[in-house]
Amino acid sequence: MRQKLQYPWLELDVDDRAAPVIAVRVDADGTKGEVPDHRHRKGQLVVSLGGGVICRVPSGLWMVPPHCAVWIPSDMPHSNRATANANLFFVYIEAELVGLPGRCCTISISPLLRELIVELSDGAQHDEARRERLIGVLLGELPLMPVQQLHLPLSREPRLKRIAIALADNPADRRTLAQWADHVALSESSLARLVAKETGLTFGRWRQQLHLIVAIRELAAGASVQQVSADLGYESVTAFITMFRKALGKSPAKYLSSVSRET
């Protein structure tokens, strides 16, 4: 089953289908695209076999690098933004059938799961017995997949929301905590406490997590390390690579390569 990068689809209502699992190959048409906020009863896996996707839910942003997926629980409002080169699958699952958390998470996708998803979307539409066997393996394997820490916590607190929007629009913005505090009419210590309370992170770590998510998205879309480093406002490529390696344990090139190999 193939659909364009949009939702809802006129010819497919995923919640109206009795099938426990529905796998859809999504056509990004070679352009950046976004599915605006929506929700459905079935839980959803947003699977990327190439390019990258960012899923936004009320509590945060979740990155889907190549060969990974984001799990979005049942009835959670969300939007999906894909890179132009994204190779996507949306897998809708009756949530009570799979042992995945009641919260969003980014998970790796093994070669077995990848082939199951491709087959369920493309090749198992007319053989119900075979389809049921493939679904059984899929539901058994999903809870075993490792979780990737590619999450940016967001807050509905108005002042933090203003900062988050500004940084998302311009990740290269290098204003200090004191400067941001002045911008939202707080003391530096008050803003530091607010960020920690709302996100569980220091301001520096929170901004770094945004940089990681943006960096992985752009690298997955084919941007060079030099270009991403400049777009994020780093003084040198070395400084960017050092930040990336400290956060994720690998250089940008090795990280993307290892995700593909391990999955």
Automatic annotation (TrEMBL):
SMART domains: HTH_ARAC (SM00342). SUPFAM superfamilies: Homeodomain-like (SSF46689), RmlC-like cupins (SSF51182). Keywords: DNA-binding, Repressor, Transcription, Transcription regulation. GO terms for molecular function: DNA-binding transcription factor activity; sequence-specific DNA binding. It holds the Pfam family HTH_18. Residues 161-258 form the HTH araC/xylS-type domain. It comes from the Bacteria. CDD domains: cupin_NimR-like_N (cd06124). This is AraC family transcriptional regulator. The lineage of its organism: Bacteria, Pseudomonadati, Pseudomonadota, Alphaproteobacteria, Hyphomicrobiales.
